């Protein structure tokens, strides 16, 4: 794989979201080989927490940031295999008509992406007030799975329930999805909220996330990517790595670092500070560790 060329491409991302190599995800090569698949490197881009519809001092460029992200991804020398948005596509509104307007506008903006394989999931701002009804009108199912070049991807919905639960029905579905997979299958899970108790006082948890982790634990090669907390964060539950992405709208404080979960203030001297993107490279087997580099948003 020409890592140098791809690395330069990632550096062109304007600090919006994350770009992820999956070629060296732990165990991926062996799982792909067993499945009879040719070994193929690929990468995808993760964007998160765009909060379309938000207006306020924490981001005076609120209506421009998402469009910049689309332009940045489109400018990559090599386009990703697919793109994933990990929730909070839009900002909360009590007005059902306004909610649909924001979802429609968001969809129109991201339709400009060159890559047409774009995966979505809701955040609580999109779905918690109507149990995901409006979201499903525009983007379909809130939980699903798909395979790509030997990797099994699972999208979990831990936001349509306003209480922040996955729910027994979806957990049963997850168990059924995992049951036929070999123990060393490479599995990537996308969620909005963290599956572990990061800081429940700020709603940074999933009420029954431990049940999902318990189902995933028998599998040796599982990685979770999520959003919600508007900052890079890394955590291990046993052998399962969890990686939070930065936001496209405003940064939030470190867990428990201040009395309230209020956005960090915009600083004209350092515009876009706290927003950024993540480059994750996973080198080909036999090395199986991630290399994660957080890079700042670039002005302009």
Describe the structure.
The protein is of the alpha/beta class. It has one domain: Purple Acid Phosphatase, chain A, domain 2 (4-Layer Sandwich). The protein contains 8 helices and 12 strands. It has helices spanning 3-11, 28-34, 62-74, 96-110, 124-127, 133-139, 168-178, 209-216; strands at residues 17-21, 43-47, 82-85, 118-119, 144-148, 151-155, 186-190, 221-226, 233-237, 240-244, 276-282, 290-296. The strands form 2 sheets. It has a 6-stranded mixed β-sheet, with helices on one face. A 6-stranded mixed β-sheet has the order 5-6-7-8-10-9. It starts with a helix and ends with a strand. The model is unreliable at 1-17, 22-39 and 282-289 (pLDDT under 50).
| Whole-number count of domains | 1
Shape: globular
Question: Might you state the CATH topology name?
Answer: Purple Acid Phosphatase, chain A, domain 2
How many whole angstroms does the radius of gyration measure? 18 Å
Average per-residue pLDDT, rounded, comes to: 83
Proportion in β-strands:
15-25%
Q: How many beta-strand elements?
A: 12
Q: Could you give me the name of the CATH homologous superfamily? A: Metallo-dependent phosphatases
Question: Which second-level CATH architecture applies?
Answer: 4-Layer Sandwich
What's the structural blueprint in terms of helices and strands?
Layout (H helix, E strand, L loop, with lengths): L2 H9 L5 E5 L6 H7 L8 E5 L14 H13 L7 E4 L10 H15 L7 E2 L4 H4 L5 H7 L4 E5 L2 E5 L12 H11 L7 E5 L18 H8 L4 E6 L6 E5 L2 E5 L31 E7 L7 E7 L4
Parallel strand pairs: 1-11, 2-3, 3-4, 6-7, 7-8, 8-10
Antiparallel strand pairs: 1-2, 5-6, 9-10, 11-12
Helix pairs in contact: 7-8
